[in-house]
Amino acid sequence: MTIATSFAGRAPFFYGWVILACACCAGFSRQGPAVATLSIFVDPMTSEFGWSRTALSGAVSIGGVLAAMAAPFIGPTLDSKGPRVVLCLAVLGTAAATALLSLTQSLIVFYLLFCFARMNFAGPYDLGIYGAVSNWFVARRAFAISTVSLVQMAGLVAMPLIAFFAMQAADWRGAWLAVGLTVLVVGFVPTWLFMIRRPEDVGLNPDGRGKAMDRGTDGVAEFVEPAFSRRQALATPSFWLLSLFTIFVFPVQAGVSLHQAPHLIERGLDPLVAATVVSGFSLIAAVVSFGLGFWPRRWPIRLALVASAVALGASAWAMIAISSEAGGYGSAVLFGIGIGGLMTMLPLAWANYFGRQSFGAIRGIALTVQVLAQAAGPVFSGLLRDLTGDYALSLTCFAVLGFGGALAVLFARPPSRPLRD
User: Fold this and answer.
1) CATH homologous superfamily of domain 3-202?
2) CA-to-CA distance for 400 and 392, rounded, in angstroms?
3) Residue 185 DSSP code
4) With left for phi above 0 and alpha for psi between -120 and 50, is residue 23 left, alpha or beta?
5) What residues have CB less than 8 Å from 2, skipping those under 6 apart?
6) d(CA 25, CA 188)
7) Mean pLDDT by 10 residues, the chain (421 residues)
8) Bridge-partner residues for 215, per DSSP?
């Protein structure tokens, strides 16, 4: 029996809040190999080794493809062993890989280490964080997921700053060491010490409620959690509609995120304005993510996802003819609303629609679709930019994809109770 399991049952508060704190720490540490963190290293590493920026950024896409391949196999491990094993291995692997990047002497070494870190970022981290939160929270799941999303965005702000200041104090090699050490201390220690698989393992119920957690004061059931196996989930229209939604919107999310600043500069905006527009959408996304934590259970989740997709499509459409700072900030607001809704409500939909029983196995399949869609967006946008000379065509396509995603998810109602296999 671990210290955590002996304490959890006797704690004067619901132990799920400890689990949420652990998931937040893991989410913060996840940003070690984030694209924003890598961007701090692009100039010094390409200057020292003479690499092209295309060669350096290719590691991001390859890491995503590796995560897509691994996710279906990691999901069942999450269901059987719990998030502690998955997250601890992800944190240790990421900490080691990012720290060892300080020893980089060749492009192949960089690829081996950074691709491994990105695979952890896109696969095990995502499954472990949302699996832990979904296991411990049902009625309060929206609030828990929104809190994790907020902390992950805080990590996305902090990790590049940690790298930047470490680089000022030493060099880029010292900065990678600082990133690796931060990942290890923030992510590993609390997860290893305090993470527990499910509340039932220590005699508790999700949300800290009693045995009648699924019944209202009048004795009528308020919410009975579904319990789908992966096979049962794959047989529902809801699974495929959510997957289609994912295919539509994640190229928009990734493609616009990477190419937004260069497009604004090409449209005549000052580089400083372009940078603040990017920061602005991140801030809006953080606020929206947290606000959606209070989404009422009686309101369909798909409505929030429809609004998110519409906001993403509208932001892409608005960016096409931007010619002023006001237009840039307006598109950032729309994009931030879309990103914030996507980050919070899509994980919530997967958990609420199909339950905790096989969350990892089901989410593992969905995550493969998501990661591949994300990898396609930047490549698609960059290719069309090179062919046409500007981003107008790619943004038009992204607008169509966003609105198409809204239409697909509009029909993604919660599935009926699963039949026996």
Assistant:
1) MFS general substrate transporter like domains (1.20.1250.20)
2) 13
3) I
4) alpha
5) none
6) 8
7) 72 91 95 83 84 74 88 89 93 96 94 94 92 92 92 86 89 95 95 91 82 38 74 94 96 81 81 75 86 88 96 94 87 91 93 91 92 84 83 93 97 80 50
8) 221
d(CA 251, CA 265): 21
Contact 370, 244 (CB under 8 A): no
CATH superfamily, domain at 230-410 = MFS general substrate transporter like domains (1.20.1250.20)
User: Residue 127's pLDDT is what?
Assistant: 93
369 closest CA partner among 346, 387, 390, 348: 346
pTM here?
0.82
How many of the other CB atoms lie within 10 Å of CB of 305?
26
Let me know if the fold of 3-202 is the same as that of 230-410.
yes
Backbone phi, psi, residue 215, to 5°: -125, 145
- CA-nearest of 233, 209, 219, 173 to 357 is 233
CA 412 to chain centre: 21
pLDDT for res 133: 94
Query: Domain coordinates of the chain in residue numbers?
Result: 3-202, 230-410
Q: What DSSP designation does 208 have?
A: G
Identify any residues that bridge with 133 across adjacent strands, giving them in sequence order.
none
Give CA–CA dist 39/33, Å, rounded: 10
How many Cβ atoms from other residues are within 10 Å of residue 93's Cβ?
A: 16
